[in-house]
Amino acid sequence: MTTEPIASSPLPATYPVRLEIERPESQSRLTNFPLGIGLVIRAVLLIPHFMILYLFSMVAGLLYFIATFAILFTGRYPRGMYDLVVGYLRWNANMGGYLSSLYDKYPAFSTEAAEGYPLVLEIDYPEQSSRLLNFPLFGPVIRFALLIPHLIVLIFLGLVVFLVIFIAKFAILFTGSFPAGLYAFAVGVTRWSTRINAYNYGLTDRYPPFSLD
């Protein structure tokens, strides 16, 4: 008697935008001081980053606009432009993680992934990009319309994260550590937001999941 092999169900494909943040065992009480004091310190320290990223955001938007024409004719996002936009999102995420007190390591002035940095962002380069979703002028409008449910959810999640970080700063003051459960939630919302940004810039055509994981 022969036994038919049981077909295993395929594993779900990995989403092409992956963000992980390593939780530090201890954090500075000064730059995480409650009642906005630590936030002000971090914001002041980040002023050079704010200035550069303001200009970089306009460059990234222009690069994607140009890339839509390349995708229209070739079906591919020019690799050099793609890498620069990914670098912008990585820099922006590094700065956001620091401002949100997820780690104390000051972000580098770089678009590259820094070895040993607590935040790691990886985005897979697509071999083909949708001409419809990246159609010049109209494609970005379609993407934004499709993202409206995500944006509504993220408004509420953003309010919750604000409360989480507010509570976590008191925990850091007394224990020197960001509570693990609260930390995982804040990282999850950061991951969700980063996926939205990547989709919005045409770095992936796969619709982002409604998930913190």
Describe the protein's architecture and organization.
With 213 residues, this protein is mainly α. It has one domain (17-200). It contains five helices and two strands; from the N terminus they run βαααβαα. It has helices at 37-45, 47-74, 79-99, 138-175, 180-200, and strands spanning 17-21, 119-123. Helix 3 (79-99) runs antiparallel to helix 5 (180-200).
Structural class: mainly alpha
Mean pLDDT: 92
Give, in order, the helices and strands: EHHHEHH
Number of helices in the DSSP assignment: 5
Task: Give the count of structural domains.
Answer: 1
* Strand content bin: under 5%
Oligomer: single chain
| Share in helix | 40-55%
Runs in which pLDDT lies below 50 for 5 or more consecutive residues are: 1-12
Q: What's the arrangement of strands in the largest beta sheet?
A: 1-2
Overall body shape:
elongated
β-strand number: 2
Note the main sheet: 2 strands, antiparallel
Gap from first CA to last CA: 44 Å
Rg calculated over all Cα atoms: 20 Å
Short descriptors:
mainly alpha, 213 residues, two-stranded antiparallel ribbon, 5 helices, 2 strands
Topology:
Layout lengths: L16 E5 L15 H9 L1 H28 L4 H21 L19 E5 L14 H38 L4 H21 L13
Antiparallel strand pairs: 1-2
In short:
This protein has 213 residues and is mainly α. The protein has five helices and two strands, in the order βαααβαα.
